Amino acid sequence: MKSSLGLNAELPVLDLLKEAVTLLWSKRSVVVAMFLPVIALLALLDMISTQYFTPADAMLEQGLDVGESLSFGGTQLVFMAVSLVLSVLMATACHRFTLLPPSQWERNALHGFRKGEWRYLWRSMLLGFLCGALIVIGVVIFMVLPPAIMPLGILLSVIAVIYVFSRLAITLPEIALGVFSPLSRAWQLSEGNGGRLMLVMIVVPVALCLPFLLLFALDSTLINYVATMGIYLATLVAIVLQSLSYRFLLSFYEPDNPLLQEIAAVPTSLDA
User: Fold this and answer.
1) Most buried among 3, 107, 211, 249, using CB within 10 Å?
2) What does the DSSP assignment read for the chain?
3) Sign of the CA dihedral 5, 7, 12, 16?
């Protein structure tokens, strides 16, 4: 995709990351009120599911009967489903917080599950399905390769999956705003920025979460809970970064898009 002048956008990832952090810090009182409850709840669910509910396969290894193992496995699925719903609520609220004026913000990330949330959940599941299908195809292809080059083939397959996901996920923010957006539009909007979007969608979020992941080595329930909250906080920064990246590409390629009239009314972090 090219602009009206025939130019290609180049995402300034580092500048957008700085803006994301600055925005969250400058609005920290709103951020705490809006997102702390859902982050605390997500962290609590994660801690309960991992500390007090052993996975079914591990229970079978411990000699417990199949019925009891399946019961605990079903409980794990319930925790996963609830966490998925809460994660969608947090993500959609964060996109709206970043892109819309305060009058259209959610008072709390624990808001109602409306049409926009269902669309966001469906698109996220569709992306997961597509990436899973690509992984399966890659595994099948590389199984016929000589063992010596199989690790390289697997690495290339993983990179390809991350590349496709990063490009197709760029329009998740506008889906959170209630705009219908086909996958083809995401592919066009992200053209020429696949590598940079891999940084936005995967590399930067993992780097932000890494310090908190290292805390789990201390093997303390309290520290694990704090670390989990830190991971969700880092995820919040990553979601804001994704929204700002989407806004940058949209303003570059589609300056006449009506959605930009709403987004342009949002004060930047420097105006806080």
Assistant:
1) 249
2) ---TTS------HHHHHHHHHHHHHHTHHHHHHHHHHHHHHHHHHHHHHHHS---HHHHHHTT--HHHHHHHHHHHHHHHHHHHHHHHHHHHHHHHHHHS-GGGS-SSSS----HHHHHHHHHHHHHHHHHHHHHHHHHHHHTTS-GGGHHHHHHHHHHHHHHHHHHHGGGHHHHHTT----HHHHHHHTTT-HHHHHIIIIIHHHHHHHHHHHGGGG--HHHHHHHHHHHHHHHHHHHHHHHHHHHHHHHHH-TT-THHHHHTTSPPGGG-
3) positive
Using only C-alpha atoms, what is the Rg of the chain?
A: 20
pTM: 0.86
Q: Are 55 and 73 in contact (CB under 8 A)?
A: yes
- How many Å apart are CA 195 and CA 183, to the nearest integer? 18
Token pair for 260: 């930009």
Q: Which of 163, 148, 154 is nearest to 135 (CA)?
A: 154
197: pLDDT strictly greater than 60: yes
Read off the pLDDT of residues 91-142 as tens digits, 9 standing for 90 and up.
999 999 999 988 888 888 888 888 889 999 999 999 999 998 988 887 777 7
